[in-house]
Amino acid sequence: MFEEFMNDTIAIQKQNGDKVEGLKASVQSPLIHLDNPAVVVEIGDLIERRMSNGAIETYEVLDPDFYEAFHGFPPHYKLRVRKLGVPEAKARVQSITYNISGHNARVNHDSVDNSTNTVTIGNDLQDYVDALRQVISTLGDAQRKDASEIVDAVAANLASQKPSKTVVSALLSALPHLASISTITSSILAAL
Q1: Can you give the pTM of this predicted structure?
Q2: Same domain, residue pair 88 and 11
């Protein structure tokens, strides 16, 4: 019935990142009339209006009033909106999702990283490394220095995203051959 008034083409950017494009509507800021009941419009959604001159206007939905069919009027939305300025619209429309995992994982997007990175390895493995350090502290000066460097290398490998059992095994085999160290190294290798 009112299709002749729907002379604007809009897209709805949902808050979850979904986008519905190519919808016909009538934009009369601060109201937008939309005769498409299949689309669910919610507070905070963004509406982009592409104009014939190539420009784009962006609106934020403040109140999506939905009306059911009544006396020949089809179901429709009367959306109360607020027009966004260009900088605000660009900031709101740009949506980037980063999925980062693993030890030492980070993203610097248009920024400088001045953070301090702390890695926590599994509690059992950390307990074994601490036990190794305790046993090594009882060794003589020369042996203690070399063994401490080896344990530091083992701890670094265990804190990596994919610890290498082969590398850890080789490093642990270079430690002094004491019963207490052998027991701990066996436990570390079993935990990998």
Answers
A1: 0.46
A2: yes
